Amino acid sequence: MIEKNGIVTFECDKDKDGNEIGNSSQRNNELVWPSETAKPKAQYRTSWKNMCNVTSYVMGLEYSGFIFPSGKYKQPEDNLGYHILTSPTVLAEFKKRQPAMYNLFIKSLEGGCNKAELDVMYFPTELHDYLSMGANEWIGTKATRFSQNINFKKALWRYMVEDNLPMVISTNFGGFGHIVCVTGVQYNKAEWEKGVEFRKENLEELPEITPVSIIIDDPWGKYNPKTNKYDAPNGGNDLIIPWERVVASVKPYNSDKVKWAHTFSHAAATV
């Protein structure tokens, strides 16, 4: 916790000495799936341009203390993406839960979708349930969970203030569907103190305190919350997003309370 000029800040992407753990950009990702050699007629391919999902997830896992399994690629986000796209377990669950969408996914790999079908076709890396499922399988434990109905104010207090853990959220930053990693939260000191007092008196309930802002690591680049545009392809580390932009641009949009979020557990208990 850092208190400065009446603002209290919590960040989870620092080590015990206060040093930055890391920040990942999707722009240097190497995965292209399916390859043009394997599926020359494929109408859609996973590449760096649409890998904000697994890149943000790798940041979340790293900030939670997980060690990544090795794979065919140098970067863990490429290995995670490849795992989700090729996992028999993930694909079987995709087919079972959403057979129509799964069939469009398979059809697109052979070049058979029309435009209307492509508009509603998604790869499993782009569907939140399979992103979480695939990450848990890849890392070898129940590291994450996804909720479409999380009280975001309470979740920020629990994961940022008390547990020192990240979250991954779905946004329309830049005017397109995008996923980023939440690494911190800021409160007015007086409001934070109210939350502390509430917690002392209500051990079974989390305070619902409105933050001033959240802090994110954005794999696409330097997002400007005032313009809802990107100022640069780099510089996505520790971006401060005012609460008003969070309300407007994090799914579900314009909700002051409920949001979609992927939450994480610690890799191991530490002293």
What is the secondary structure topology, with strand pairs?
Elements lengths: L1 E3 L2 E5 L40 H12 L12 H11 L1 H10 L1 H11 L5 H5 L8 H12 L4 E8 H11 L4 E5 L6 E11 H13 L11 E5 L4 E3 L4 E4 L6 E4 H7 L8 E7 L7
Antiparallel strand pairs: 1-2, 2-5, 3-10, 4-5, 4-10, 5-6, 6-9, 7-8
What does this structure look like?
Helices cover 34% and strands 20% of the residues. It is of the alpha+beta class. 39% of the residues are buried. The protein is elongated. Helix 1 crosses helix 2 (76-86) and helix 3 (88-97) packs across helix 4 (99-109). It has one domain (2-264). It has helices spanning 52-63, 76-86, 88-97, 99-109, 115-119, 128-139, 152-162, 189-201, 243-249, and strands spanning 2-4, 7-11, 144-151, 167-171, 178-188, 213-217, 222-224, 229-232, 239-242, 258-264. Strands 1, 2, 3, 4, 5, 6, 9 and 10 form an eight-stranded antiparallel β-sheet that branches.
List keywords for this structure.
single chain; 271 residues; alpha+beta; 8-stranded antiparallel beta sheet; two-stranded antiparallel sheet; 9 helices; 10 strands
Number of domains: 1
Mean pLDDT: 95
Largest sheet: 8 strands, antiparallel
* Morphology call: elongated
Helix vs. strand class: alpha+beta
User: Can you write the helix and strand succession as a string?
Assistant: EEHHHHHHEHEEHEEEEHE
Q: How many strand elements? A: 10
Low-confidence stretches: none
Number of helices: 9
Helix content: 25-40%
Task: Please report the distance between the alpha carbons of the first and last residues.
Answer: 18 Å
Write down the Rg: 19 Å
